[in-house]
Amino acid sequence: MSGEKTEQPTQQRLKKARQEGQIGRSPDLGAWVGMLAASVMLPRTLSKAMENAEELIGKVPDTIANPDAAKCLAILKDGLMSAAWAVLPLALTMMAVGIAAAGAQGGIRVATKLFMPKFNRLNPFTGLKRMFGPQAAWELTKSLFKTLVLGGVLYMTMKDIVPQLMTAGRLPLAALLGIVTDATLALIRAAAVAGIVMAAADYFVVRRRTQKQLRMTKEEVKQENKNTEGDPLIKAQIRARQFAMARNRQMADVPTADVVVVNPVHVAVALRYEPQKGAPRVVAKGQGPVAAKIRQLATDNRVPMVQDIALARALNSGCEIGQEIPAEFFGAVARVLAFVMSLKARGSAAGVHRNPNPTPAMT
């Protein structure tokens, strides 16, 4: 059926979808990758924070012994700055990971159209369709699977750490904190890796669903192409006007030609030779009515015409308007120009003349 969306979306359709924020991406992917990066940066951040805290605490006794508002404010300022510098690498890492995750899933774009109110979002039937449709089923499956996986990760981690904690009554506090910290980091990293795997699966499902939603009917593709490339009738009219303008330009150059090489009826090629600019150039050429017009202009402007069937056909098919003639035509054109110069020397160049040394058939 013509109404079925069987065609892949065009580039214009994809661009419009990106502008409207309709991009297949999983928000969980950036969150889980950020958590994994945080678990790597967290030990360094905590270590730096503890060093700064110890340094500040070392200043407290002197301040208590000699109370001074300026010293207290200085300690407070140092504490805030130290905390900021300790947390800054972690914050920058999280921001970079978030940007990279968004860019990897289709680029970073501000979809301003999402801020515009849409009344169809308030449609209760659309809401019910989202609640009980395939998308809702996938979200439910994803939530259950996420719960099971994270529960399994938590169980495996705690299974190893609980026995150690049960027998850690005689351990120093620092060692106990080390065990807890290592276990916590291991839990976070294991959960993050599992989350990344689930988020990757979610990304592919969401992307596939988005691509399916953006599919187009054959009629929509035709209309899109028409809007993008223009109506074929209008394009044909534009090409016709462009051709007419080019033809008028070349006709205006015929009076400046040195010679027009013709076969008796069908072909005419106007040449102009300016030694300081290189080889002779084709200023106009054509067949049929165009050739007749060139011959008429040559007659009106007393431009000599030389009949040379083989050369006229070869120049018409092998040369472009405005370009120098190729090297293989140098000898034949030179003989024609020499013939024309001899006619001008006798004062009888205007009109049509037969080439006394016609060019052999050229391929």
Automatic annotation (TrEMBL):
It comes from Actinoplanes teichomyceticus. PANTHER family: FLAGELLAR BIOSYNTHETIC PROTEIN FLHB. InterPro entries: T3SS_substrate_exporter (IPR006135), T3SS_substrate_exporter_C (IPR029025). The chain crosses the membrane at residues 83-104, 186-206. Pfam families: Bac_export_2. GO terms for cellular component: plasma membrane. This is Flagellar biosynthetic protein FlhB. Keywords: Cell projection, Cilium, Flagellum, Membrane, Transmembrane, Transmembrane helix. SUPFAM superfamilies: EscU C-terminal domain-like (SSF160544). GO terms for biological process: protein secretion. Residues 1-22 are annotated as: Disordered. The keyword Zinc does not apply.
